[in-house]
Design a protein that fits this description.
Layout lengths: L2 H30 L5 E2 L14 H6 L1 E5 L7 H4 L5 H4 L5 E4 L2 E5 L6 H33 L5 H14 L7 H9 L7
Parallel strand pairs: 2-4
Antiparallel strand pairs: 1-2, 3-4
Helix pairs in contact: 1-5, 5-6, 5-7
Length: 182
């Protein structure tokens, strides 16, 4: 067993213990912004409907904010993820809702990226997404986190005019290839 594996394993144990607090923060954040949330379908992006079912776009929500809400990870007791708090993100997803900064309002590519994350949340579940994302962040950092890498790769496909396909099924297949945290 390598030292890195041991440290990640210990961190994941701490993350498992702190999941209730993290879930609570997410639920409070979603509730606080519920009146501002709009269905992605209402944004009327021309291409998203070619990649995601219309019912999915009706039940996926976007909130436009001046500042992305990031969980207070150190305060929750997750110092191993504190580096995540420092990120300057264009968007972030919690369950079926994502937040984008005001300058990303019309950026269809950014919205596509966040929709990939909604599908990841859907298939992994709340705890599964949080632990998989945390494990990927601890092992690979933000840029190479497998969930981010998948969203970015599919976003590039979208940006390059890739053939419309059933993204939800494709994401599900790709998720099966990502190692699950122990």
């Amino acid at each position: 067993m390598t030292l890195r594996y041991f440290l990640v394993s210990m961190s994941l144990q701490n993350i498992q213990e702190k999941l209730p607090q993290l879930r609570e923060w997410i639920e409070r954040t979603l509730a606080r912004h519920r009146t501002e949330a709009r269905s992605v379908a209402s944004q009327r992006f021309p291409r998203l409907k070619d990649y995601f079912p219309s019912v999915f776009l009706e039940t996926a929500y976007v909130v436009i904010v001046p500042r992305i809400p990031i969980p207070p990870l150190r305060e929750i007791g997750l110092p191993e993820l504190a580096e995540f708090e420092k990120g300057d993100y264009a968007g972030i997803t919690y369950r079926n809702t994502y937040f984008v900064r005001e300058n990303g309002l019309y950026d269809e590519s950014l919205h596509f990226h966040e929709l990939v994350h909604i599908v990841q949340w859907l298939y992994l579940g709340v705890d599964g997404f949080l632990t998989t994302y945390a494990a990927g962040f601890l092992e690979h950092g933000y840029e190479n986190n497998p969930l981010e890498a998948m969203a970015r790769e599919l976003q590039n496909y979208f940006d390059q005019g890739g053939q419309p396909t059933d993204m939800k099924s494709l994401i599900r297949r790709n998720l099966a290839k990502i190692p699950k945290p122990v």
